[in-house]
Structures are given as C-alpha cells and as structure tokens.
Amino acid sequence: MPRARARDLGIAIGRLPPGPHNAITDVPGVLVGHCTVIHDEPVIARTGVTMIVPREGAIWTDHAFAGVFLFNGNGEMTGIPWIEESGLLGSPIGLTNTYAVGVVRDALIAHAVERGHSHRFHLPVVAETFDGWLNDIDAFPVTADHARAALDAASGGPVPEGNVGGGTGMRCHGFKGGIGTASRVVDVPAGRYTVGVLVQANYGRMRDLRIDGVPVGRLLEPRWGGTQPPETRPEGSIIMVVATDAPLVPVQCRRLARRAVVGLARVGGLGYNSSGDLVVAFATGNHIPLDSPPSRYDLGMIPHPHLDTFFEAVADATEESILNALTSAETMTGKRGTVHALPLDEVKEILARYPR
C-alpha cells in the first residue's frame, strides 16, 4: 500500500487534538526546511540537512528560552553548554549526519554573518544521527551549500517526512526511518497553546517496536528480521526537537525535553549504550531581544502544576512523530544494501487484531 502518516492508518495517539498540519510548524513562527542529497556519482550519497527555524528566522536577534536533555549521550549536539548556562536558544536548529555536524554549524554562522546578525557571538545548535549504512559517510557528501539550501527552503505548513533532509539515509527499528513530526493543542488556564515535535529517527531493534501499545515488531520479525542488513545493531540514535509557543522559562523547557523520552520509550526506544538520544526544547512565548534590550525583561511563566498537559502533549507528539517517520519512509538502496520500508498492510492487519 502507498506510504501514509500514522493517522491515515487509523493510529491516533493520545486524547489531545493535533494542530492543523499535525506538525512542528503548527507552533506559530516555526519553519522547517530540508535539503535532500541523493546521487550515485562520484560517490553514493543518501543524506541531507534539515533546519528547524524558530520565529520565522528572527531567532538570531530575538532569542527563545530553551532546555536540553540527554537520555543517552553517544551522539553530538552543538550549543548545549550555552543553553545549559543561559537557557537561551539563538539560532536555527540543524539536523544532519554524524560527519557533517561541523559543516552545518559553520554554515549557520556564515549565514548569520552574511545577514548582519554577527554583532555578537553565535553558538548554533546542530545535531546528528549516523547514516553510514546507506550513505558513503566517509566521503563527506554534505556541504555548506546543502545547509544553506535547507535554510532557504524553510517554510510553514505541512512538513515532508521519511526519506528527506537529515533523515534521508536513516533506519529505525530495522526498517527505513528518517524525519517525522506531529503536534498537539493544549488548553490550560492561561490560554491555548501548541506543542510540536520533530524527530530524526535512526535507532532501535525490530523486536522492540510497539505501535499504539501493540508489539508489532515482535510479530513482524519472523518474516522481516532476515531482511535486515547483517551489520544492523541496536545502536543508531534519535534527535528530538520540541517546540511550543507557551511562555515557559528554561527550567520548564528542560522539563518538557525530558518528557519526549516517554514517547520514545512507548515506541521501543531503550537508550542502548551506543545510541545518541538527545532532546532540545524551546519556547517562543517570551521574547529576549538582543537589539536595544530593555533594562529588565517582563516575562511570562505557566505555573508548574499546569504543565501536566504539556507533558502529555510532548509524549504523545513524540510517539506519533516517530511513527510518522516509519510510515512515511520508503524502501531505499544505498552503499551497503537495501533497507525496507515498514510494511503498512501487515501493520494494519496486526493492529486490527488488537482492540485499542
């Protein structure tokens, strides 16, 4: 059957409603752009760059509060020390492969300089997962031009998923993985807000995969386990980006980041020793302008007891984002072999046997 999002297959995670696009771009001002790099000459490339751009690009001079959480640290995310020190995000967030982190980071700084934002220092956030099975990662096919193209492509609305951008060459639970996204609308006494999540999913064993609580991976493994590349191991990684327009302060962003791991665990992410499971969360409800800053900032803050619904939204949106990555991704052949797409017809048949 054709590729589809999880909801197209009747899989609706949780009780909270999604935003209009069920994507991180439902958070006002958040844009996403991809540059997908696929070619066979002069090297085999199955890779790319994804950019998440807060405040429609004004994030360079109007920072947002942020927090990070490292569930398992065998991975790379630049900019973490300054986020932990100051609680501030001051750049777009780039996602790419393990060997291209420096290239994408430098391209972001060059972008800031070219546009006159470099009146202060910049510590961009760029994170990675390893695509070396399908992609000739040792040939360094990602360039600064690809990073710039992803920035230039950043837009609102529906977000392409699966084999796109930084997720092009990724695997997940023994099947083709990549980019996935989802959102939830949250109503609290302070008002209505949106929580969005975007993942680059490249982790996990087939037998661990669960979809809406059903042990789908265990049931698929007898038929599909033999199709896995012989060097497939549970390591790999996942990057999770959480966004909201609520007025949260840094400690609350860190709390949201931790809850993304609840959604990861529901799908079957266990934080294996060789996995890099990293989360960054940002909130645009407060403004921290750098040009002519006021003598003090008048900030908003959601009361801690009202965060429970946000926690639920993050967990559900993360779970659904991973599922969207799996259900959207297509079978891909690359440098070392073929990684098959999740068989959606078999998944539907399995889910129909389990009342949920």
Report what the structure shows:
The chain has a single domain (13-288, 300-341), classed as L-amino peptidase D-ALA esterase/amidase. The protein is 24% helix and 28% strand. It has helices at 80-86, 101-114, 144-152, 216-224, 250-267, 308-328, 344-352; strands at 31-39, 45-53, 62-73, 88-89, 93-97, 125-129, 171-172, 175-176, 178-188, 191-203, 236-244, 276-289, 332-334, 337-339. The strands form four sheets. A six-stranded mixed β-sheet has the order 4-3-12-11-10-9. Strands 1-2-5-6 form a four-stranded mixed β-sheet. Strands 7-8 form a two-stranded antiparallel ribbon. The longest helix is centred in the C-terminal third of the chain and has 21 residues, at 308-328. The protein is globular and about 65 Å long.
Percent of residues in beta strands?
Answer: 25-35%
Give the fraction of residues assigned to helices: 10-25%
Give helix and strand order, one letter per element, not per position: EEEHEEHEHEEEEHEHEHEEH
Across the major sheet, the strand order is: 4-3-12-11-10-9
SS-derived structural category: alpha+beta
Count of discrete alpha- or pi-helical segments spanning 4 or more residues: 7
Instruction: List how many beta strands DSSP finds.
Output: 14
Q: How many structural domains does the protein architecture include?
A: 1
Shape: globular
- Quick one: CATH class? Alpha Beta
The main β sheet shows up as: 6 strands, mixed
**Sequence stretches where pLDDT stays below 50 over 5 or more residues:** none
CATH topology: L-amino peptidase D-ALA esterase/amidase
Span between termini: 23 Å
CATH architecture annotation: 4-Layer Sandwich
Return the average pLDDT rounded to an integer: 95
Q: CATH superfamily name?
A: L-amino peptidase D-ALA esterase/amidase
C-alpha-based Rg, rounded:
19 Å
